[in-house]
Fold each of these.
Amino acid sequence: MTKTLKLFHVEYLPKELEPGIFYVSKEFKVAGHLCPCGCGNKIITPLGRMEWKFSENNGEATLYPSIGNWQLPCRSHYWIRKGKIKWSYSWSDERIEKGRKVEEEKRKQYYDRLQAKNKKK
């Protein structure tokens, strides 16, 4: 069964998140929802150039890249596409570590380029 998330724009994320709602604060560049596996954990995703990218089409949310809740006991892994949860495959501990290193290196390169650009000004 495909789960759906209803998009709800907010200024601040609420303290208590409701199941089936995908909250987005454009002002604070953050999104939040409850883990779709049903474990009840809050999933907070920062939005931005080096974080998750949010888009909206006809009131349906898309988030890129996938969400891997590797630090949670459920270890759920899924995509949010056009307001629907698309389940993905599990990652091994080795794959998770490799993915974290790749993301860390991407951030480092981005901020190094940004710093070099600002020094030229």
Amino acid sequence: MPERLLLSLRKFVAPEFVFGRGAVALAGRQAAGLGVRRALLVADPGLFAFGWPDKVATSLVAAGIEPRLFSALSSNPRDVEVMAGAKLFDESGCDALVAVGGGSAMDCAKAIGIVSANRRHILEFEGVDNVDRPGPPIVCVPTTAGTGADVSQFVIVTDTARRVKVAIASKMLIPDASLIDPEVTATMPRELSVHTGLDALTHAVEAYVSNAHGPMTDLLALEAVRLIRLNLPRVLVDPGNIDARGGMCLASLYAGMALSNAILGAVHAMAHSLGGLLDLPHGLCNAILLDHVVRYNYDAVADRYVTLGRLLGARFDDDAPDAEKKESVVAAIADFRTSLGLRLNLADLGVSPEAIPELARKAMADPCLLTNPREASQSDLEAIYENARRATS
């Protein structure tokens, strides 16, 4: 590794995490170790059919902790839901949060925590380092493999008035602990497995090419890509394969720590705008945009994309022309997505040509764009959206 990069000033933050089968049953012990007495249990409402929130609640009670339930949240958590959760947190006299679910539950819990601690509306924290006081302890039990919210310093919340997802970044948002249990993720339906898996892939790719990357984030991002290529197809063939589920949980963990420290890029800036306007699944937006953004960014960090492309199956000689390498890398990313059955474009999701200028305008204000390896104008983003809208698979 070049000495210049090794000597560049970088910081790395991560929470405590427990990984492995049976980790979900440790929620009570983990919370008790943080001195918790009454916890707001923020749970994805769709998980009650599988019993995971009940299992966590039982663990809390066994540890002498009184749970209060909050499950009035959407798949893309909204500002009004966060504020309702913070009101319940305060009225119930809670001193901690336990999140059970995917990125929606974990982001909602983290947002509730900073609202309660700072007595401000959640949208007032938009941007980077705008959180003055840390929230109460948070323990996460992720039930998907992809969002990385359980280990990251980000919260994404939908501004219902502006119809845009806002990004909040602060190390005060990093949870105190994450309990990562592969068995919990085995209840994910196929579509969610694809969307969250490709979300993790996007995290790893964007962290690796970010202009804020470093030696530790590089290591984690590359291993995440390797694990995703190996295990995501196996999960779809055999959903009960705990080894493959565990591989995806590790990939999500590695990619989450990489993105939290290297930040992201244009894919996420554009996906936040898209998801906020049309209330679409975040991982799906990322997956559709990824190869188009890679094509735009490629020449800025070609050597890094070559490394990523080879991990995803791109084949070319070392002395091949740059244009050939570029096409191979872009094709490898698109082919991996379509091999998982995802062949949609933005037009299929309802994106009209008339919506594109507004989408690009909102994406330009997203902080994730700051660490994209190539500077982008609004017209550049409009062209990428249009390419993703018209793409054929």
